[in-house]
Queue: 2 jobs
Job 1
Amino acid sequence: MSGTEKAVILARGLGKRMRADTGAAALDAHQASVAETGVKAMIPMGRPFLDYVLSSLADAGFRKICLVIGPEHSQIRDHYERTATLSRLTVEFAEQLKPLGTADAVLAAESFAGGDTFVVLNSDNYYGAAVLAELSRLSEPAVIGFARSGLIELGNVLPDRVTRFGALDISPDGFLRRILAKPDESMIASGAEIYGSMNCWLFDKEIFRACREVALSPRGELELPRAVQLAIDTHGLRMKVIRVRAPVLDLSNRDDIAGVQERLRDVAVRL
């Protein structure tokens, strides 16, 4: 059987950027209070931002969802256990006891994966269903490579922010070679489109080995992109890059809230 119905959403982050008061206008009292907690997934936009992410996953054919949260994230657990009405998907939880990084967060979902392939994505990015469906149909590891021009022109990513998503070094046959912090000179000189990662992956069970072995980054975290690179370099991982020119709504800080809310205003949510 090809494809997967399983998705893991990383919702454990500390939300340092969101907690910082940038003086953003037009936040209502509820939005401001949630922003102060740093739990970006629960920023209210008529309903929690994460509801839109989950609805997009359901539109793409995913049915089994695991939310990786911290033990202090009772508001997320309460919402999906007590408040939300779920008819198109099931939600379970995995706890990452300490915020050690995204590779460690993926390890927390190993039991949920159960040996199956599964998608991993962020809780603070809204990816369209058409993009997510690209991964739901596959049976081998892959990553969505987002064209930088599309992130800027179609989404809400500003040119100075797009550099945060690095650059994918892609082989001629379409597989990931390296995840670069920034494009190398040959990429820039070619004038070709540069693709970055917005943390939208399809993995099989082999990723857990790399997540266990990966060393701390210079930032002192166990980072998922470094685990992927380790798997490519030492474990023989072949990861297909699915190149798309599509928007992503990035909810990084308070300045993003009003614009993302406007973009989602007419989006129907069905969980």
Job 2
Amino acid sequence: MFQFINIAQAAEEGGEGISVHLAPYVLGHIGNMPITSTLLTSWLVMLLLIVGAFLLNRSLKTIPGKSQSIIELTIGGLYNYVVETLESEKLAKKYFPVLITIFIFLLTMNWVGLLPGVTSIGYFNEHGHLIPFLYPPATDLNIPIAFAFISMAVIEFAGIVALGAWKYGGKFINFSSPMSFVVGLIELISEIGRIVSFSFRLFGNIFAGKTLLLVAMFFVPLILPVPILLYETFVGMIQAGVFAFLTLIFIKLAVAEPH
């Protein structure tokens, strides 16, 4: 379980500088499952997206207004890009909902983590340490790893459905020649390594941004955090896009015929 303490709080306690520690923010338990600040924030994001989708669906019109037109053009442009990348409208219809869901979920999750009150509203435990109710979800490595497993499950599913289990498995286990066997093992290691690259890329960028914001608020409050906050808003969008884009590219590679 990976989570982080407030840097400013650590500085006040240490008295000699800033330190960052891996430590869980556990709010309580349901049975044996710990309920953490990052998990609670993820649930909040889910609720916001469900309510937002419900309200958006109710407001759709046959003759769209400006806002609806912009949304339709954006979604349509992204869909066309997926069709061009996969070179198949059938595949695009199957996997576009997953890709856009990953993007919207991660984008909302990253932006909610930047809202005022996140990391600063909570309660003090018996040791006088602040336990925040909400914390940026991607700073908990467990959550990026969960998204990585979801993406890899979709990628492997796409490959197996498109090529069949036997042919798709032949990309990684091939005894036709020593060279094919070695290349297959390299491909298998690369496939497994994607879980690490997926999760640590998202985790590293969001954690680094949050750490930078906390340091800026501690040393230069009210001035320096503003441009950093704007930058991190952009980074949050880019990281969500990169995650979805890489999932798309790996789906493209998975459905390709083995050579």
